[in-house]
Write a structure and sequence with these properties.
heterodimer, A: mainly alpha, 3 helices, B: mainly alpha, two-stranded antiparallel sheet, 4 strands, about 5% strand, elongated
């Protein structure tokens, strides 16, 4: 399982990095989304992977930490998901405004002769 | 306490002065004069206490944990300086009242004038090194503002900038020196530093510290080689020159040198640095003063020379020389301020300060002339005036200098020579302006100014005479208090007297006087503007040159190190990140861990075959098929969400899923404003080798990043879990947080402050989106309806210019069916969102998820029903939701204060209510409600403002805040 999880992170991160290095704003925004998935999964993985150990206390079995998966990375990633949503929204609007102002969707606000 | 009052008075006065009307010259002068006099009275009042106690201290704890206090400290030396600052300040205020023209905006002048007075008092009264450095910078800033007071003049702006750059650079060096000094002494407290002389002088950092502090002092006091800014600062109004650039601010440098004299002086390095700079300034300043044509120019160079004399005295490493230095500081302040006032009067009454044009003014303005003659005589060192006394002390010190032979002999000779120059330029200053044939060739007919303008100058001249004739009873006791406070038990005995008998210093004075007269008579009667010998050494030129070099160097460095292209910047970013991750691996080696892995589940593998393919396909298609790429990226997000479910993270899965939906809608709304790319694709530009090479480069970076991250993740996943802080949260979630869902308890309780910050960011982003799109101008080709919509409309027989009908029960055409479904969905979605909110504390859910669900339901209404239709029925005010959300979360946090707990401590109430039965209430719920409302408000606001862009076609103005 772990190896698939790790490869999934790698594939999404690689796709994300490739897109972020592209010249069109839309490519960058999709790339950032993919990169965010990868990074969120990565942070989540820091708590190690466990199946069937949801960090919701069962009053019957008590608060033994061994029974539950690590909740801290989950709390961090939850914050990260919301923040990456906010940055995506902001970037989308900047992208639109830049397109409206400059007449191009190149990341530098002007067409270069390259690509 | 009165120390604080002395310091605050000018600053408060400055604020008041700034708000008076522009033409209130009298009110301004009264205000500034009263402030200065009150401060002077307060200072004078402290004298008996200083004689009795030595030092008055006052300190207010500021950051006690760091050992930082706001501390004020006044000893005899600081007292003398504070007196000079306040008394001369008061006199200059009177003078300025009559000097400034009614057209000048006086509030600005007096506001900065008083601010400067406060800053200067801060420098002399501070009891903490860092505080001194801060007030020091403030004086530089005030000086900048005052030099540039007539900011329509180029020379004023240039002079101000040059003064600020030079003194500001010195201030930076001083700050460094202060930090080192405090570090060596172990405290930034002035008393502690002054007591640590031995520690500091034997410390290996002593030379660096000394150089830095001396740099600060020399730049401030306009000493060689930084003297060039002072003559250019003469573009300031004359009261400023009299006050800042002769009597007080330029004295800050020598003030500091004398202040730290007990700690830093006594070494050879001190002698060469301080004494050397002083000697050069003394000689060069006096020499250049000989050839100035501007009255203020003569005075400026003479100030450099006299400050050089003081610096030289301080550099001699002898206590008696220090006494002479302090004495000369006071003397110079009096005669130079009055000379500046005289120059200002001449300028004011005749319209010029050019000494080649001025002549024979004695007849027209005899009082001014008399005052100027006496003050200039004091400057030249004529007996029975104060300048003579300190100059005699200086001569005596040069003779008794305790140094090897050649220095011992040459110093008195140089001193006499400089003094000769001083006599010559004083003579020239007086003779060319006030004597000789009267001239008619002046912009204005000269006459005596109003008596009030003469009064300050007269008082200062009176002081020169009184001190010069009766030094023992006028200045004697104060001088002794001042020098005793610096030197302590090492204070030498000396006598202030006019007559010390026939001795070598007197002979030197006589030589200088006669030599000066001869020099003037012989060579300078009508000298030209050219400066012999030193013409080529021009500080200003070097300054300008270094400025230009600095700028071009910075540009060069920018060209080398900076690219304005985002792609290049991101490339560097990724390379650095890759290198940063790779470096520790290379250093310590890397290996997989030994933790037992889980057996692979085929469904999970399948999930990521799909998910990974989606990600790769999105990367491949994002350029030409945006919609497909968006859906594919969503597929990868869905796989991520399912992975969260799989590995025991239901909260994450829910949030990821809802965020996924909202993000997709958001980007969908934005898609139509992007330029079409198919056309360009069809042209099929040939790929150049360069493009291919760059793609290959990016591809390798992407692969390296992906492989690296995957390897890193796997290496960590196969290692055993470390004992972190997690057990604490799990164990305390129920007893302390009162919730079963640990993740939610962490978010809203244990780490509530983080969440508060996070929702604030969300609110800020939403408002930014709103603000950015208010002025959005879409590209012309994206304004008409998209092709798909046009085709659909054509098929449905709807004409393109149709304005949506807000009264229709259902939207017509292809949206009719979805509209029915979506309307049925809204109450259900509301229910679900509330359900998630309320159960969040004990089961997966919470404010974020709930808020996103509601926002999605609302935006669905927009998508299907159309903006016009929805907004004619549904009133949602996203801004209000955002505000209420923030308010609610903050209230929940602040409610803990009522019980004396820190911010965001959770409070719970458990009890019985009639009708409702058993009830559990917690401030956490209020907090989560705040999160919920804010998420709804922020998300809806962002989506709706983007959606509203399509209304531009109808040229409608819908104000969002009230109508959205």
């Amino acid at each position: 399982m772990e190896i698939v999880f790790a490869i999934a992170i790698g594939v999404m991160a690689g796709s994300g990095i490739w897109l972020v290095l592209r010249p069109r704003t839309f490519q960058v925004i999709i790339g950032l989304s993919l990169l965010a998935y990868a990074v969120n999964l990565f942070i989540f993985g820091m708590g190690r992977l466990r199946v069937g150990a949801v960090p919701v206390i069962d009053p019957l079995t008590g608060s033994n930490p061994d029974l539950y998966t690590d909740p801290v990375p989950q709390a961090l990633v939850l914050t990260a998901i919301v923040i990456s949503f906010a940055t995506t929204a902001l970037f989308l609007v900047v992208l639109l405004a830049s397109r409206g102002l400059n007449g191009t969707d190149h990341v530098d606000g002007q067409e270069t002769d390259r690509e | 306490m009165s120390l604080l009052l002395i310091l605050l008075l000018p600053f408060v006065g400055s604020l008041c002065a700034a708000f008076l009307p522009a033409n209130a010259r009298n009110a301004e002068a009264w205000l500034a004069g009263i402030v200065a006099l009150a401060a002077a009275a307060l200072v004078a009042n402290l004298y008996p206490q200083i004689v009795a106690e030595g030092v008055i201290r006052m300190s207010i704890p500021w950051a006690p944990g760091l050992g930082l206090d706001f501390s004020l400290r006044m000893d005899g030396y600081a007292w003398l300086f504070a007196m000079l600052i306040t008394v001369i300040g008061a006199l200059v205020v009177v003078y300025a009242r009559y000097y400034m023209s009614p057209d000048d905006p006086v509030p600005r002048f007096f506001a900065f004038f008083l601010a400067f007075m406060g800053a200067m008092l801060g420098v002399v009264l501070s009891g903490n090194l860092l505080q001194i450095a801060m007030f020091w910078e403030l004086t530089s800033l005030a000086s900048f503002m005052l030099i540039a007071y007539w900011h329509h003049r180029v020379d004023a702006r240039r002079g101000a900038r040059m003064a600020l750059i030079v003194t500001g650079t010195g201030g930076l060096a001083l700050l460094g020196g202060m930090l080192l000094l405090g570090h060596m002494a172990g405290s930034y407290d002035l008393d502690a530093v002054l007591a640590a002389a031995d520690t500091i002088q034997s410390h290996p950092w002593y030379p660096v510290t000394l150089i830095l502090i001396v740099l600060g002092a020399l730049t401030k006091s306009a000493q060689f080689p930084f003297h060039f800014w002072l003559p250019h600062a003469m573009a300031a109004p004359t009261p400023v020159s009299a006050y800042l650039h002769s009597a007080t601010m330029v004295k800050a440098g020598v003030f500091l040198l004398a202040r730290f004299w007990p700690v830093l002086a006594g070494t050879d390095l001190w002698f060469w640095l301080v004494g050397g700079a002083g000697l050069c300034s003394l000689l060069i300043g006096a020499y250049l003063a000989l050839f100035q044509q501007d009255m203020k120019g003569v005075l400026a160079y003479s100030t450099i020379s006299h400050l050089g004399l003081i610096t030289l005295l301080l550099g001699m490493n002898s206590p008696l020389a220090l006494v002479a230095a302090v004495f000369h500081i006071a003397n110079h302040a009096t005669f130079k301020a009055s000379l500046f006032m005289a120059a200002g009067i001449v300028d004011h009454e005749t319209g010029t300060r050019n000494m080649q044009r001025l002549s024979g003014l004695y007849r027209a303005m005899p009082i001014t002339a008399t005052l100027a003659i006496v003050a200039a005589a004091a400057m030249a060192g004529v007996p029975l005036l104060n300048g003579f006394l300190s100059k005699e002390m200086f001569f005596a010190e040069t003779i008794f200098l305790d140094r090897p032979d050649w220095q011992h002999i040459s110093l008195p000779l140089v001193a006499t020579l400089a003094s000769m120059f001083s006599v010559a330029y004083s003579l020239r200053f007086i003779h060319q302006v006030f004597f000789g044939p009267p001239t008619d060739d002046l912009p204005r007919a000269p006459h005596e100014p109003t008596r009030w303008m003469l009064l300050p100058s007269a008082l200062l001249v009176l002081a020169c005479v009184l001190v010069g004739m009766f030094p023992g009873i006028t200045v004697g006791p104060y001088l002794r208090t001042a020098t005793d406070s610096i030197l302590g038990s090492d204070a030498p005995s000396y006598s202030l007297a006019v007559w010390h008998g026939l001795n070598l210093p007197l002979l030197m004075s006589a030589t200088a006087l006669i030599g000066g007269v001869v020099l003037y008579r012989a060579f300078l009667w009508r000298a030209g503007t050219e400066v012999p010998l030193l013409e080529r050494i021009d500080g200003k030129r070097i300054f300008d040159w270094s400025q230009t070099r600095l700028m071009s160097g910075a540009e060069q460095a920018m060209r080398w190190l900076f690219s304005p292209r985002l792609q290049m910047q991101l490339l560097v970013l990724f390379l650095v990140a890759l290198g940063g991750a790779l470096l520790p691996m290379l250093n310590t080696g890397s290996s997989w861990g030994t933790r037992e892995t889980m057996p692979l589940h085929p469904a999970f593998a399948l999930l990521w075959i799909v998910g990974g393919t989606c990600a790769l396909a999105a990367a491949w298609q994002a350029k030409h098929h945006r919609f497909a790429a968006l859906i594919l990226a969503g597929g990868a997000g869905l796989a991520t969400s399912l992975t969260f479910v799989w590995f025991s993270a239901p909260d994450l899965a829910l949030t990821q899923l809802t965020v996924e939906v909202v993000t997709a809608v958001l980007i969908l709304l934005g898609l139509r404003w992007l330029p079409p790319r198919e056309a360009r694709f069809a042209q099929g530009r040939p790929e150049t080798a360069r493009v291919r090479l760059r793609r290959l480069r990016d591809m390798s970076i992407a692969v390296a990043g992906g492989v690296g991250l995957a390897a890193l993740a796997y290496a960590i996943l196969t290692r055993p879990d470390i004992d972190g802080i997690s057990p604490f949260f799990i164990e305390q979630s129920l007893p302390r947080g009162g919730g079963l869902n640990v993740v939610n308890v962490i978010l809203v309780d244990f780490r509530g402050f983080d969440t508060l910050g996070e929702i604030t960011v969300l609110a800020v982003v939403a408002l930014t989106v709103f603000a950015l799109l208010r002025r959005f101008r879409p590209a012309p080709e994206s304004i008409p309806l998209p092709r798909q919509q046009r085709e659909q409309n054509a098929a449905d027989g709807i004409e393109e210019t149709r304005v949506p009908d807000p009264d229709a029960k259902l939207p017509g055409g292809y949206m009719m069916l979805p509209a029915v479904l979506v309307r049925l969905l809204l109450p259900l979605a509301m229910l679900v969102s509330l359900f998630f909110l309320l159960r969040g504390h004990n089961a997966p859910g919470g404010g974020f998820v709930g808020g996103l669900v509601l926002a999605t339901a609302i935006i669905l209404q927009y998508l299907v029903g159309g903006i016009v239709w929805v907004e004619s029925r549904l009133r949602i005010h996203p801004m209000v939701w955002i505000a209420l959300g923030l308010l609610s979360a903050a209230t929940a946090g602040a409610s803990a204060w009522l019980h004396g707990h820190p911010f965001l401590t959770s409070l719970a109430w458990h009890g019985e209510l009639p009708l409702l039965g058993e009830l559990h209430l917690s401030s956490v719920l209020l907090f989560d409600l705040g999160v919920y409302m804010l998420v709804v408000g922020a998300t809806v606001l962002m989506l709706v403002v983007i959606a509203h862009q399509s209304l531009r076609r109808h040229h409608r103005k819908l104000s969002l805040g009230g109508n959205a």
